[in-house]
Amino acid sequence: MRLLGIGINGINLFCGLMDLACKFYDQTFAGCFTNLQIAAETVCKLSMQQAINEEKELTLKEENSETNLTVSGDGTWKKRGHTSRFGVVTLAGRYSKKILDSCVKSTYCQSCVFWKKKR
Q: Which residue numbers delimit the Mutator-like transposase domain (predicted)?
């Protein structure tokens, strides 16, 4: 359901239409996302570590150096101009052409917005 972009209300509607007795509560729904995030981060880290090792091997073959990696960096923003609050930066290896590292940055904080409304 997460891949379809359906939130908790959509899941509960689906369960009702399919005559399934279970109802998802906010805490259960958030727990599912926590598990998905942990799994995705683990797979991402392992994949990038394999790409780094491969890049080291290829650099050793081509340049006889394992520590001087050549990378290409690219950054992008969610919106054009300088108004975006979300950005992504990636580093790709020269020889393997695989992503070695990525970083998502944000200037937006949901907690700050929440507590600002409470004041």
A: 2-118
> How many CA atoms within 13 Å lie on the side-chain side of 25?
2
Spatial separation of the C-alpha atoms in residues 57 and 65, rounded to whole Å: 9
Task: Kindly list the strands in the beta sheet with 86-93, ordered across the sheet, starting from the edge strand earlier in the chain.
Answer: 71-77, 86-93, 99-106
- Return the structure tokens found at 90: 């990636």
CB 100 within 8 A of CB 93: yes
What are the domain boundaries of the chain?
8-118
Mean pLDDT of 68-79: 87
Element (H, E) at 101: strand 99-106
User: For residue 100, with 0-12 CB atoms within 10 Å meaning exposed, 13-18 middle and 19 or more buried, which class applies?
Assistant: buried
For the chain, the maximum distance between any two Cα atoms, rounded to a whole number of angstroms, is 64
CA-CA distance, 59 to 52, in Å (whole number)?
A: 10
pLDDT tens digits along 32-54: 778 888 999 999 999 999 999 99
